[in-house]
Design brief:
235 residues; alpha/beta; Rossmann fold; 11 strands
C-alpha cells in the first residue's frame, strides 16, 4: 500500500520550510513518531547535519522527530526499519548517485511499496518517477544509472515554469526541454508548479494544491489538469 506525497518544492514564496504543506504532513505521518531524512541532495554550501537541522525544525512544529540517514552505519537497515521517509531537495544527480552508491534503490522501493509513508520535495520528488531525465539540475556528478524509484508510471518535472510572455529572453522554455525529452523517450511527464503535489495512495494518484499541472504525453499536445484530478491512468 503506497502512501506518498510528491511535492514540487519544500518552500513557496513568503513561507517557511515545508510550512505550506505541514497540515497535510501531520495527517500523512500521523502513525510515525520519527521520520528518516535523506539529505543526500543537500543544497550547495550546507552539510548533511545542517540540512537535517532544517528538517528537524520544520517537523518539530507537528511534533515529529527527524533523524538523518547519514548518521546510521547501515543506511539499508535504516530504510528498512524507518517509520517514515523524507527525501529533500537539492541536486537530483547527487541524490541519485548517493542512492546507488549506498545500494538504497531497491530497499527504498520495497519499503515504500510495503506502506512506509514517503515525502519527496524537488529532487526527492524527481526520483519518484521512472527516470531523472526530466530534472532541471546540472549533471555535476554522474550516477551509475538515470533510472529512478519508479513509484509512479511517469516522469516528473518539479518547479515547472510557464513561459514568461514579457521576457525578452529567446532561449529554451521548460516546455521546449520536455518536448526534447520526448524526441528520445516516450513516458509522460507531469510539470508540477510550486505549491502543488501529488498524493499517492496505492495506485491512486491525485493532484493537490491550488494550481493546475501541465501534462506532456508522447506525440500529443500538452494540456492542463486542475487540482483534484485523478492521474492514475497517466502512463
Amino acid at each position: 500500500m503506497k502512501n506518498l506525497i510528491i511535492a514540487s518544492t519544500s518552500t513557496i514564496h513568503g513561507s517557511g520550510y515545508l510550512e505550506y504543506i505541514l497540515p497535510t504532513l501531520a495527517k500523512h505521518f500521523k502513525n510515525a513518531n520519527t521520520i528518516l531524512f535523506v539529505p543526500y541532495a543537500r543544497p550547495s554550501g550546507i552539510s548533511h547535519d545542517q540540512y537535517t537541522e532544517i528538517a528537524q525544525k520544520a517537523f518539530k512544529k507537528i511534533n515529529k522527530k527527524v533523524v538523518g540517514i547519514h548518521t546510521f552505519k547501515n543506511p539499508i537497515e535504516a530504510v528498512t526499519k524507518a517509520q517514515a521517509i523524507f527525501v529533500g531537495g537539492g541536486n537530483t544527480f547527487v541524490l541519485t548517485n548517493q542512492l546507488y552508491v549506498n545500494q538504497l534503490i531497491t530497499p527504498m522501493q520495497n519499503a515504500i511499496k510495503n506502506g512506509t509513508p514517503y515525502l519527496g520535495t524537488s529532487a526527492g520528488s524527481n526520483i519518484c518517477g521512472l527516470t531523472i531525465k526530466t530534472t532541471n539540475d546540472m549533471p555535476i556528478v554522474y550516477p551509475p544509472n538515470f533510472n529512478a524509484l519508479a513509484l509512479v508510471p511517469f516522469n516528473i518535472n518539479p518547479h515547472y515554469l510557464d513561459p514568461d510572455k514579457k521576457s525578452k529572453h529567446m532561449g529554451e522554455t521548460r516546455e521546449t526541454r520536455i518536448n526534447e525529452f520526448h524526441y528520445y523517450n516516450t513516458p509522460p511527464v507531469i510539470g508540477l508548479r510550486e505549491g502543488s503535489w501529488l498524493q499517492v495512495n496505492n495506485n491512486t494518484i491525485i493532484l493537490k494544491g491550488e494550481l493546475s499541472a501541465r501534462i506532456f504525453e508522447y506525440k500529443k499536445d500538452a494540456y492542463e489538469v486542475t487540482p483534484e484530478t485523478n492521474l492514475s491512468d497517466l502512463k
